[in-house]
From TrEMBL:
Segments for region (Phosphopantothenate--cysteine ligase): 201-408
InterPro entries: CoaB-like_sf (IPR035929), CoaBC (IPR005252), DNA/pantothenate-metab_flavo_C (IPR007085), Flavin_trans-like (IPR036551), Flavoprotein (IPR003382)
Residue ranges of domain Flavoprotein in the record: 14-182
Protein's UniProt name: Coenzyme A biosynthesis bifunctional protein CoaBC
Family membership: In the C-terminal section; belongs to the PPC synthetase family. In the N-terminal section; belongs to the HFCD (homo-oligomeric flavin containing Cys decarboxylase) superfamily.
The reaction(s) this protein catalyses: N-[(R)-4-phosphopantothenoyl]-L-cysteine + H(+) = (R)-4'-phosphopantetheine + CO2; (R)-4'-phosphopantothenate + L-cysteine + CTP = N-[(R)-4-phosphopantothenoyl]-L-cysteine + CMP + diphosphate + H(+)
A Gene Ontology cellular-component term: phosphopantothenoylcysteine decarboxylase complex
Length: 408
């Protein structure tokens, strides 16, 4: 008896691939093949700029369908063909999505075939950005991405690496196989993906405050934004989510049960009270030390120096990871100021985690208190870099990866 064929994660889905005008358009040819290998039906629409890099005939040969390039095709538009194509699509994938194309999508333009198709369709949209790293990091591009993300658009990539002009940085189109995996995993507020349905996810977020006396405390700069975004993304994927939060000023995400705590000891108690669970994501910046004996009254300014007697707090993440029989995945975060990869991999091994997410703090436009970040995920046999992007977008990309690792 022959072996069963492997599952095709996009089986039967009708995907409209919209190709933007960047040098990375050549990778979209391979993307057509990878989408078909995953079981999808593919039709292609191109911007005028895309046709300067790759010919419509190439996409027609690979997809088996005529490539659409203009709103002014009298034969195709005799029966309003662009509306028919917009209705045909189950998903729209824009790859590469240039800075210009992202801007026009964010502002609702319908000045060519691609933007009109995106505006005329109810299908979920995924964009795979590709551009120079300075264009990617520009506040205008980041604002456009935030607008699109707020509408439920899934953003995949870009990767950090060599660029066509000889420079290096975030802006490289994610590889076709990774784009297909992200589509299969789902994502975005409009997506119907329920990849985490039936699973319980516990997320810790924000700082802890360790009281010195009734007036003062030891704390850190964590805003909780990343943990809250991850909790929201997991809830959108169908998970039952418990969010254990230190002191932050953030609204509770929709569909999430929130437990507020103050100290490391209280966070530990709340995390373990939320078990049993399937996944633990330790995004909180838990204090490493706490006063041995907090003062009952305000400590008075009576000398030129003050020595504090501090003791270690419980290592919540390591304790959770020790419960290997009860959880499918334990994921930690590492905020570092130097030797980020080295320290993160050390924690991954020492705490016996399934994955750790590392980022550099103390830098502009990233880390604590910022709305954006860049990070790298490490696991035993691999890693994945996430280029600088809004934390809400990074959360969706991270949950995409978590879904992948669940089935690895």
């Amino acid at each position: 008896m022959s072996a069963p064929s492997p599952p095709r994660p996009l089986h039967g889905q009708r995907i409209l691939l919209c190709v933007g005008g960047g040098i990375a358009a050549y990778k979209s040819l391979e993307l057509v093949r990878r989408l078909q290998d995953a079981g999808a039906q593919v039709q292609v629409a191109m911007t005028a700029g895309a046709q300067q890099f790759v010919t419509p005939l190439s996409f027609q040969a690979l997809s088996g369908h005529p490539t659409r390039t203009t709103l002014w095709d009298s034969a195709a538009e005799q029966a309003m063909g662009h509306l028919e194509l917009a209705r045909w699509a189950d998903r729209i994938l824009v790859a590469p999505a240039t800075a210009d194309l992202l801007a026009r999508l964010a502002h609702g333009f319908a000045d060519d075939l691609v933007t009109t198709l995106c505006l005329a369709s109810d299908a979920p949209i995924t964009v795979a950005p590709a551009m120079n790293h300075r264009m990617w990091n520009h506040p205008a591009t980041q604002a456009n991405l935030a607008t699109l993300h707020g509408r439920g658009v899934q953003v995949v990539g870009p990767d950090d690496g060599p660029l066509a002009e000889g420079e290096s940085g975030p802006g490289r189109l994610r590889e076709p196989d990774a784009i297909v995996a992200a589509l299969a995993a789902g994502g975005g507020a409009q997506a119907t993906d329920r990849a985490l349905a039936g699973l319980k996810v516990v997320v810790s977020a924000g700082p802890t405050y360790e009281d010195l006396d009734p007036v003062r405390y030891l704390g850190n700069r964590s805003s909780g934004k990343m943990g809250f975004a991850v909790a929201a993304s997991a809830a959108r994927r169908g998970a039952e989510v418990v969010l254990v939060s230190g002191p932050v000023n953030l609204p509770t995400p929709a569909g999430v049960k929130r437990v507020d705590v103050r100290s490391a000891a209280q966070m530990r108690e709340a995390v373990f009270a939320a078990f049993p669970a399937d996944i633990y994501i330790g995004a909180a910046a838990v204090a490493d030390y706490t006063p041995r004996l907090p003062a009952a009254n305000k400590i008075k300014k009576s000398s030129e120096s003050l020595a504090l007697d501090l003791v270690r707090t419980p290592d919540i993440l390591a304790e959770v990871a020790a419960r290997t029989q009860e959880l499918k995945l334990v994921i930690g975060f590492a905020a570092e100021t130097e030797r980020v990869a080295e320290y993160a991999r050390g924690k991954l091994v020492a705490k016996r985690l399934d994955m750790i997410i590392a980022n550099r703090v103390g830098v502009a436009d990233g880390g604590f208190e910022s709305d954006s970040n860049a990070m790298t995920a490490f696991w035993k046999d691999g890693e994945r870099a996430f280029a600088s992007a809004p934390k809400t977008q990074l959360a969706d990309e991270l949950v995409d990866l978590i879904v992948e690792r669940l089935h690895a």
